[in-house]
Backbone:
């Protein structure tokens, strides 16, 4: 088989540098505005940090003074389409199982694409996503005519002062708001050998990946799998940490 055809109007990767930001501290319940001062000669190409802070404050003040928007018109959408049939999807699942049994692969991320056309604005869709699937890691990213909406409970990578943390998730059960039923779901997740085995496999893979860029002996499995509560689900989450090796950067 040849390489997978990339037919999504997005780059494989992209980087944006935001030199001014409004930051909300959830613990202190306070907003902050912050900006970066650039070294010469980059400073000559950008407004000063003070002027960018002032501009950001003015924009926030203007937004706060605007009246709340009225109810949007009823949205229209086309039927949802999928890029493969149910039978084709199951055939791919069975093929992946055969590869795993043969030892050719350890895991596969098999996904489907669901498509529709709608006149709902990206921001409105994002607000609905946050309401229906609240999470600790979410993003609204306008990108050259395409907007990425994301809501995920999983921390992929965190790098601070040379210290790397990754927190993979394997294993999910619903959280319905009923104490008795939620306790059953939590016990099921905690006792599942399948979910534990999947997470152990991912922990080994990530230990190996971090070992390529971290100092020798610095990799630690802080947690092999804790059950965490999220607004709508229970997850089994591991935590792996390490210290970045010399001359290694976030990129």
Residues:
């Amino acid at each position: 088989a040849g390489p997978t055809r990339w037919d999504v109007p997005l780059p494989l990767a992209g980087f944006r540098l935001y030199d001014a930001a409004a930051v909300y501290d959830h613990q202190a319940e306070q907003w902050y505005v912050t900006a970066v001062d650039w070294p010469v000669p980059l400073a000559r190409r950008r407004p000063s940090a003070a002027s960018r802070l002032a501009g950001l404050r003015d924009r926030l003040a203007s937004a706060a003074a605007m009246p709340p928007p009225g109810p949007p018109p009823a949205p229209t959408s086309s039927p949802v389409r999928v890029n493969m049939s149910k039978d084709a999807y199951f055939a791919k699942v069975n093929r992946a199982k055969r590869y795993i049994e043969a030892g050719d692969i350890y895991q596969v991320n098999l996904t489907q694409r669901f498509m529709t056309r709608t006149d709902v604005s990206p921001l409105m869709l994002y607000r609905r996503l946050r309401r229906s699937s609240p999470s600790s890691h979410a993003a609204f990213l306008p990108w050259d005519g395409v907007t990425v909406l994301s809501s995920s409970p999983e921390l992929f990578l965190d790098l601070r002062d040379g210290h790397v943390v990754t927190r993979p998730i394997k294993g999910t059960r619903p959280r319905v708001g009923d104490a008795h039923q939620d306790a059953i779901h939590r016990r099921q997740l905690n006792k599942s050998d399948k979910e534990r085995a999947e997470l152990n496999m991912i922990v080994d893979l990530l230990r190996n990946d971090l070992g390529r860029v971290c100092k020798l002996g610095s990799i630690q499995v802080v947690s092999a799998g804790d059950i965490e509560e999220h607004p709508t689900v229970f997850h089994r989450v591991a935590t792996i940490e390490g210290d970045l090796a010399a001359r290694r950067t976030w990129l």
The chain has three domains: 1-69, 81-149, 155-243. Residues 81-149 form one domain. Residues 84 and 90 are 10 Å apart (CA to CA).
